[in-house]
Predict the 3D structure of the following.
Amino acid sequence: MADVMQPSIADTERYAHIDNILNRPGPLTEEGFIPGEPVKSFLRDQCKILVIGAGGLGCEILANLALTGFRDIHVIDMDTIDISNLNRQFLFRPKDIGKSKAEVAAEFIMNRVPGVKVTPYHGKIQDHGENYYMQFNLVICGLDSVEARRWINATLVNMVDPENPESLKPLIDGGTEGFKGQSRVILPTITSCYECTLDMLTPPTAFPICTIANTPRLPEHCIEWASVLEWPRVFGDKKLDTDDPEHIAWLFETASKRAQQFNIEGVTWSLTQGVVKNIIPAIASTNAIIAASSCNEAFKIATTSAPYLNNYMMYVGNEGVYTFTFEHEKKPDCPVCGGETVDVDVPRTWDLQCFIDSLAERNDIQIKKPSLSSGSKQLYLQAPPQLEEATRPNLEKLVSELLQDGDDVLITAGNLPFQLSLRVKFVD
């Protein structure tokens, strides 16, 4: 066995509360738990943990991990600091506006908790391959993107080699939405994965075009009208940039005039931003609770000092403090960890474009801009441009002209590292 490093006086004082847990077994301690210096040395000198996201949830997670004893932390975030972040992302200051979230958060933690090394990466999680993720013992997500969660979940599942136990990287996922939140433990290929629970997500709010065009009743209808209908009419192919203050200002003014015409009150700058950017209000206390839960699970997995969550915790703080835990079971037809083909009903009146649109709308699939093939037949390809142009005529053809009842369709998307197999069942 390798020599165990002796703790410094500073470490002894800083982690005294943690040592009370690791110096002796408890009533719920797992059988493999060995108290004392070996487990403390692994936690502080060997365990390498990756935090994805350095926003409201990520800031809390980074601070908790450092103060719990994790001393080799990596953090990834592609965003820069905005003034609106400062009310809840407490690692940032006004002088940091415009700087990388990952880099500023790493520097802050290392200055505040000496001895902790935080390695930042300013960029996308998709910039790295499996070799990068293989170096970590644990991965914690503090993301606000479903797409990014699906990507890292599928990547970690694909990494698992049954003959190499070290290839299994536990994933702890935390998420918040106003006064609600959840944390969960995912053991790739063993427990249900993120894709298994995709149909539990609340679908994004969508307003019927006929309502926002003809009979608006809410301030949100006026804002949607300005962004979806009026912007393309006035600016043509010019893309709306929801991060550009001048674009937001134009939408706000246009939506306000629309609201006045229909005697609708409530169009504000912040609501305009919230509607076009699909912003969900963030509550600092919710972030703190979910981050604490996520880091608690990371500590239990790293040290085996207590049983970890099996496997889903919900928190609701609207009218008090309520939590509920349950085991979410694996889905046999999960495209990531299940592998079974999914049956889909397709009306005979649908053309291929309707079928593609339905893939984005279904809660259990939610794939945008897919490429489709069946056997050796290419139904529609998003790229390269030459193949997209060659397969584009199929979009107007009936699915029943392209496929037979019971045919399998292979769905791929450039932003997701997995394939989905669908079995077409025609319905009248």
